[in-house]
Amino acid sequence: MKTTGIAVIGAGPAGIAAALAAAEAGASITVIDENSAVGGQLRWRIAPLRGLDEALDGLPACRAAETLRERLATAGVSVLAGTVAWGLFEDGSLAVAAPGGGFRLRAEKIVVATGAVDLVLPFSGWTLPGVMTARAAQVMLHLHRVLPGRRVAVIGEGRDAAELVTDLETAGAEVVLRAADPAQVVASGEGRVEQVSVNGEQREANAVVIALGRQPDPELALQAQVDLGYSARLGCHLPLRNELLETSRPGLYVAGEAAGAVDLAESFAEGRLAGLAAAGASPERITTAQEKLARARSPERSADADRLRPWASDRAQTETDASSPWTSWVRAATAEGRDNSLDRVALCRCEQVTIGEVRQAIEEGALTINDIKRRTRAGMGLCQGIFCTRAMALLLHAERGIPLSEIVPMTERPPARPIPLASLVEIEE
Ligand SMILES: Cc1cc2nc3c(=O)[nH]c(=O)nc-3n(C[C@H](O)[C@H](O)[C@H](O)COP(=O)(O)OP(=O)(O)OC[C@H]3O[C@@H](n4cnc5c(N)ncnc54)[C@H](O)[C@@H]3O)c2cc1C
Prior knowledge:
This protein is α/β, with parallel strands linked by helices. The protein has helices at 13-24, 61-74, 134-142, 159-170, 219-223, 264-278, 283-296, 299-307, 320-323, 327-334, 355-363, 369-376, 389-400, 422-425; strands spanning 2-9, 29-32, 78-80, 84-88, 93-98, 101-112, 116-118, 131-133, 151-155, 174-179, 185-188, 195-198, 201-204, 207-210, 214-216, 228-231, 236-239, 252-254, 309-310, 346-348, 353-354.
C-alpha cells in the first residue's frame, strides 16, 4: 500500500488551496484529480478572477489554473491527474484508479475537495442525445471548442444560466428558447433532439442545456459515514464539520463546493483552512485562515453553515425553503390522470426507471431513497444516483409528506465513479 502525509481529493480551487497551505506547513501531500489537468472548474472558464490573491487577480480563470499548477509543482506537491479516488474504506485507506493501474493509498489525513455536480430534474425527452448539463456544454465550448448545438434551448435561471447563454451566443449558437422550470419542457426528435417546446411554444433545436444549479458532491465522505446535517438552502444533506472543517471522522476534512461553498473565494478560503488544519499548522495561521474564510462568506451562507444541524434535532427546519424552486416540477410529476405525462418519463436514466414506477414504489410503501432503490433499481446504475436522488427525495416528500430534512441520502458505496476492471485486478497490496 502506498502512503502519503495528506491526500487531497480534487484539484479545483479548494483542493489546490488545501495542498498549497499544507505544503507551506511542511507536510507531504498527494493530490488526486480525475481530470487530465488541475484546476477543477477553473479550467474551462474565461471570466477574470477576483478576490483570491493579488497574483491571480484579473487573470482569466483558465490562466489562473495554470499559475496554480506551477505553484503546486514549486511547492513539491505530488499531483496524480487522470486518477480517480473511488473508495474510502473503514481502515481509512483510499482506493485509487490511475492510468497505470489501481492501488490503495493510506494517508494520515484526507481532504475531500470533490466539488459539486450539476442538478438535473427529469422532463419529457431529457434522455435524448443533445440534452446535457450546463457544465457539459461549457466543457464542450471551452475545452473542446465544439458548439453543443447551433440552436439551443436553456433550462434554468440565475448566474450559471446567464453565463452559459452569454458563452453560447459568443461562440455563435442561437438560444432559441428559455425555460425556468423543467416540467414545462418537452424535447423530441428521431434519435436526437430536433424540437423543443416550452409551455406549448415550439422551436427547432439541436441541443437542450440544463442549468438548474449545482449540488455538493461529498460522496467519499459519505462512504466514510460521517455525520450529516441538512442544508435548507441547498435542499440536501452535507457533512457536519467543526471550526477546522474536520468531519466527525478524525482526520477527514471536507472543503469547497463539496461542503456547500457557493463560490470560488469561499472554496479557496475553505481549502486553505482545511489544508493548514490537516497539516497541524500554528494556531496563528489557523486563526488568520478562519478570519479570511469568514470574510469570503456571504451573510446568507454563514447563516446556513451555522444552521446546519444533524437531522434528528432539526425538525423545526421545514422543507419549504428547499422545495420552493422545485414546486412546479413536483406538482407536474405527481399530478393524477391524463395530465401527468411525466409518469412515463425516465427518472433514473441509467436503469431506465420511470417517474411512474418510482411513484408506484412509494405508493406500495417505500419510505426511503434506499428502499426505492431496492424496489426499482433507480440509483443503481452508472451515475450512482448523482442525477436521480434529488428527484426521488422530492417525490417522497410530495407523496408521503416526509420533510426533505428527514430523507436520508442513499447509502454511498464504492466505486464513487465507474472504474475499469483492470484497476481492481492490478490493485497493489
Ligand atoms: C457554470 C459555472 C459558472 C460559475 N461562475 C462563477 C463565478 O462567476 N464566480 C465564482 O466565484 N464562482 C463561479 N462558479 C463556481 C466556482 O467555479 C466553484 O465555486 C469552484 O470551482 C469550486 O471549487 P472546488 O474546488 O470546491 O470544486 P471544483 O472546482 O469542482 O473541483 C473539484 C475537482 O474534484 C474532481 N473530483 C471529484 N470527485 C473526484 C474523485 N472521486 N476522484 C478524483 N477527482 C475528483 C473534479 O473532477 C474537479 O476537478 C461557477 C461554476 C460553474 C459550474
